[in-house]
From TrEMBL:
It comes from Steroidobacter agaridevorans. SUPFAM superfamilies: GntR ligand-binding domain-like, Winged helix' DNA-binding domain. It comes from the Bacteria. Pfam families: FCD, GntR. Keywords: DNA-binding, Transcription, Transcription regulation. This is GntR family transcriptional regulator. Transmembrane segments: none annotated. InterPro entries: GntR_C (IPR011711), TF_FadR/GntR_C (IPR008920), Tscrpt_reg_HTH_GntR (IPR000524), WH-like_DNA-bd_sf (IPR036388), WH_DNA-bd_sf (IPR036390). GO terms for molecular function: DNA binding; DNA-binding transcription factor activity. Residues 13-80 form the HTH gntR-type domain.
Length: 243
């Protein structure tokens, strides 16, 4: 996704919803990474909409915990801590394991075929090593399961969690062996789905998300430790300079 993709070229009735979708996708795909400051004027120019529409979209993003509003209305993309990531993935494990059980029980052959097609495309992209495209397709994979689960409540709750970790997924996929391991986990999951085995599918989904959680949390904890260690070092350098 590029900055020029944000612009809303039409003049739809529901401009706010279009602006909201564009900004939400920009955050989840890493165009606006965690910690980045968002400026209303720049967002208006990028989207081609009024400040009122942008502000309404930002209010919704704040409610979804995707952005944070600080003093003097400084707006930044929310940073997900290692503790937050662990909790989000534990919730995902519960919700999406149940969702895939429902999917196996309710989905028609067309839905199963769509999931199989996405799975095959995932393997092709994996062989190319395109982490960004793989993360986007993984989102489509999960969305297909949520849509076919037959539960709006489960789907809506899981989607909110997915949006908060989409950018982190890209980063975890870049870790050594995580792509290959994740693909094997998807293989097991899709096999259980095709065989119409809801218990096996739920078990495979839980195992996949548990492994993803461990990879992401470990990465974030390492970054947090590095950041904490850098604080006294910067203070010492500043003290030496002032002395």
């Amino acid at each position: 996704m590029e900055y020029q993709d944000l612009r809303i070229v039409e003049n739809p009735t529901l401009v706010r919803e279009h602006a909201l979708d564009k900004l939400r996708n920009a955050i989840s795909r890493g165009l606006y990474p965690p910690g980045m400051r968002l400026v209303e004027r720049e967002l208006c120019e990028a989207l081609g909409v009024s400040r009122t529409s942008v502000r309404e979209a930002l209010r919704q993003l704040q409610a979804e915990n995707l952005i944070e509003v600080g003093k003097r209305r400084n707006i930044t993309v929310a940073v997900v801590s290692s503790k937050d990531a662990e909790d989000i993935y534990l919730m995902r494990e519960m919700l999406e394991s149940l969702a895939v059980q429902r999917f196996v029980a309710l989905a028609d052959e067309n839905a199963i075929k769509k999931l199989v097609r996405i799975h095959k495309d995932l393997r092709k992209v994996l062989n190319k090593g395109d982490v960004r495209e793989l993360a986007i397709m993984a989102g489509e994979f999960y969305e297909t399961i949520l849509h076919g689960s037959g539960s709006k409540v489960i789907a809506d709750m899981a989607r909110q969690l997915l949006t908060r970790v989409n950018y982190l997924r890209m980063r975890s996929m870049a870790e050594p062996h995580r792509l290959e391991d994740g693909m094997h986990e998807w293989d097991t999951l899709i096999e259980a789905i095709v065989e119409r085995n809801p218990e096996a599918a739920a078990k495979a989904m839980a195992a996949h998300l548990s492994n993803a959680r461990k990879a992401i949390v470990a990465k974030l904890q390492h970054e947090e430790e590095q950041a904490a260690a850098a604080v006294p070092e910067r203070a010492a350098v500043s003290s030496r300079r002032s002395g």
